[in-house]
């Protein structure tokens, strides 16, 4: 009887023990790591569709951790033809009346997924300020640009182009502040572009 009681006590002790913790230094695999593992396996199997799908999942997992910002910000010589199709301008000096064309790619904005439709939606807006060398705002406009769409593919390649008129500005140094607003994520990011208007 005593032996039976002892076994009951040992069984209860085992049942109440906490689950073993993961090995030191080895964190549980997250969605990003799983997607990369799946992509490696698919690549080894020479399966393009599964490889690209897994890499897309990795992008979506990483995207949720990005800050809202802009990459590949360039003054360009002419209106871009599409994503990555731009010719960078060689300098930031403009003749009086010459338009300023700015290319950028926003990242980290909130994307809403509709599981029923299998679609992704984003909503961005833009404001701008034109600031002189003394820090005075000499021009600007709120809500001059709005960019939104619903697509079947995750919108991680959205190029934005802004064209600013510099007509009437006297020679001198200025900065253009392009304020991007993520309407779904309630965040904003400002791209600051120093320029100079050349004298006659």
Description:
The protein is α+β, with helices and mostly antiparallel strands and 200 residues long. The protein folds into 2 domains: 31-65; 69-197, Immunoglobulin-like. It contains 3 helices and 9 strands. The longest helix is centred in the first third of the chain and has 16 residues, at 48-63.
The percentage of residues in β strands lies in 35-45%
Subunit arrangement of the protein? single chain
Shape: elongated
Which homologous superfamily in CATH is the superfamily of the largest domain?
Immunoglobulins
Query: Uncertain runs with pLDDT below 50, 5 residues or more?
Result: 1-24
Name of the CATH first level of the largest domain: Mainly Beta
The structural domain count equals 2
Write a short abstract of this structure:
The protein has 200 residues and is of the alpha+beta class. Helix content is 22%, strand content 38%.
Key structural traits:
22% helix; three-stranded antiparallel beta sheet; 9 strands; Immunoglobulin-like; 200 residues; 3 helices; alpha+beta; six-stranded mixed beta sheet
Describe how the helices and strands are arranged:
Elements: H1 2-16, H2 31-44, H3 48-63, E1 69-75, E2 93-94, E3 100-107, E4 112-114, E5 119-132, E6 137-151, E7 160-164, E8 172-182, E9 187-197
Parallel strand pairs: 2-9
Antiparallel strand pairs: 1-3, 3-7, 4-5, 5-6, 5-8, 8-9
Helix pairs in contact: 2-3
């Amino acid at each position: 009887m005593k032996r039976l009681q002892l076994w009951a006590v040992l069984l209860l002790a085992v049942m109440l023990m906490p689950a073993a913790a993961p090995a030191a230094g080895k964190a549980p695999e997250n969605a990003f790591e799983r997607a990369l593992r799946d992509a490696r396996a698919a690549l080894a199997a020479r399966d393009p569709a599964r490889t690209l799908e897994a890499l897309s999942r990795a992008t979506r997992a990483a995207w949720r951790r990005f800050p809202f910002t802009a990459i590949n910000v360039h003054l360009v010589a002419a209106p871009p033809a599409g994503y990555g199709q731009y010719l960078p301008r060689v300098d930031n000096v403009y003749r009086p009346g010459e338009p300023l064309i700015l290319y950028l790619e926003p990242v980290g904005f909130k994307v809403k997924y509709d599981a029923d439709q299998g679609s992704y939606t984003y909503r961005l807006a833009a404001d701008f300020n034109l600031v002189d060398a003394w820090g005075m705002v000499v021009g600007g406009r709120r809500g001059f640009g709005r960019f939104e769409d619903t697509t079947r593919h995750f919108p991680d390649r959205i190029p934005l182009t802004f064209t600013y008129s510099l007509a009437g500005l006297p020679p001198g140094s200025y900065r253009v502040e392009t304020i991007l607003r993520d309407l779904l994520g309630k965040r904003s990011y400002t791209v600051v572009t120093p320029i100079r208007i050349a004298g006659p």
